[in-house]
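sorry for the late reply, my laptop died twice this morning and i had to redo everyting from scratch. anyway the thing you sent over, i finally got around to it. pasting the sequence first so we're on the same page, its 164 residues, then the predicted structure underneath. double check i copied it right bc i was rushing
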Amino acid sequence: MGVALIEILITGGTIAKSYDEISGELIFDEEHLKKMILQSRVNFKPKITKLFLKDSLDMDEDDRQMIYEAVNSSSSKKIIILHGTDTMVQTASKLSTITGKRIILTGAMIPYAFKNSDALFNLGSAFGAIGTNESGVFILMNGTTFKWDEVKKDKKLGEFVKKI
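ok and here's the structure:
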């Protein structure tokens, strides 16, 4: 897997947020994303592209088109998208017409800066899952890789589950 070029697209979401101790608010912090990648200790250097930093509830069709164009034009065949969890499935649906690439969307329910965050686990899981050769669009959360059209976010459970 070390030879394959992996690209990480940053779009925002909880995974890209940290806590501002002065204002007491969650803010976007792209620096901690670099720390997460270093902490993951992967033996390859992914290409990192920041598209924008938005809460996924604030994303619109223009934002999804920007993600689509970035994925479609990328020379990489393996792409991880850091994305907010609320509209991850909608973005995955938009990307579903792209062929010949393995695309994994992941994020976090709890910001990386918080003690019980799932951010590093989900990113590490995405690094592991990106190595297979099956192309398509997938959502990886809670240690499970789902095909994009077979998953939904269960807000009561606070996790992603297989559609029934």
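The mean pLDDT is 91.
thats about all i looked at so far, will dig more tmrw
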